[in-house]
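User: Some background: our group keeps a shared notebook of sequences we're curious about, and every so often someone picks one and asks for a predicted structure to add to the entry. Today it's my turn. The entry only has the sequence so far, pasted here. Could you supply the structure so I can complete it?
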Amino acid sequence: MPQISVIVPVYQAEKWLRRCLDSIVNQTFLDWECILVDDGSKDRSGAICDEYASRDSRFRVIHQANQGVSVARQVGLDAAKGVYVIHADSDDWVEPDWLEKLHQKITADNVDMVICDYEQIYVDRIKYVSGCVTSVDNTDLLMSLVRYWGGCLWNKLIRRECFIRHHVTFHPEMWGFEDTYVITKLLTNPIKVSHLPEALCHYDIVMNKSSLTKLISDKHVRSLMLYINTFSPILTDSRFDEGWYFRKKSVKMLMMRMEGNCRWSIKDVYPEINERLIEECRRARWWSRMRCVALCLQGHQKTGRFLYRILTKLIDCFKAPGTVVL
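Assistant: Of course. Here's the predicted structure to add to the notebook entry:
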């Protein structure tokens, strides 16, 4: 039984997969296994996975038909044998002492989960991000997840027994936010958490332009709605109210960004926040896209979305390369 199982879901990642896997091979901590789940890739990703497995017996490869990242992560978790598990995304990379320092921290503090910091890599800058912006109290962490996300898995080493004991699994219908879903589910149970204030992971914002975090689709929106609908009835303390407002607002904004015709009526999804959101939109500048959102909320969806697309194209023409505009 290895101490740590590293799970890497792989899909269409041949351009950057070697960078990720090399950073795992070069770990100073040696007692690990790496489970590569090739989720129906049509490029050379599967062959690259097999290549690493042939060179290093600590790599295991599972090839399957494309079923989405949530299923791929669960397949890797089911196959894991380690005392602890952590995930790595194929378009990112980690420091050589990633596993060593996380393992030292989780054993020294005798906790179930340890969270480290990370760097976001942009075209023109690097941003340091704390993996724990509050205390390590479970409620504080949950409030942070609801309001700011931060549910990424590659900066969290977790005791595998926690998934088994608390019946925590990835939701097969989630094509995004599956990491936040699982971390939220874990934290609703009495697990102990610690924070390691060092950036050991590098999250590439721009490399994988086909990432689900950058593509907006029905699946993406449904995943976010599934997250809200699952946990908002559970996390009902008034301290979560602002977070849930922000998340429900995010659903409406994602619908505005969807290409083509949105299948939902924006004003009919989470109508309880419409009045507050319309008031916010009215305070925006007259040329702001928020004014377009207000039109949709007032029942003029076609006009509002048409104007929104025009303004978005104008913004895209003038924004700096690598800038993410929400």
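Suggested note for the entry: Confidence is low (pLDDT under 50) at residues 208-213, 322-326. The first strand starts at residue 4 and ends at 10.
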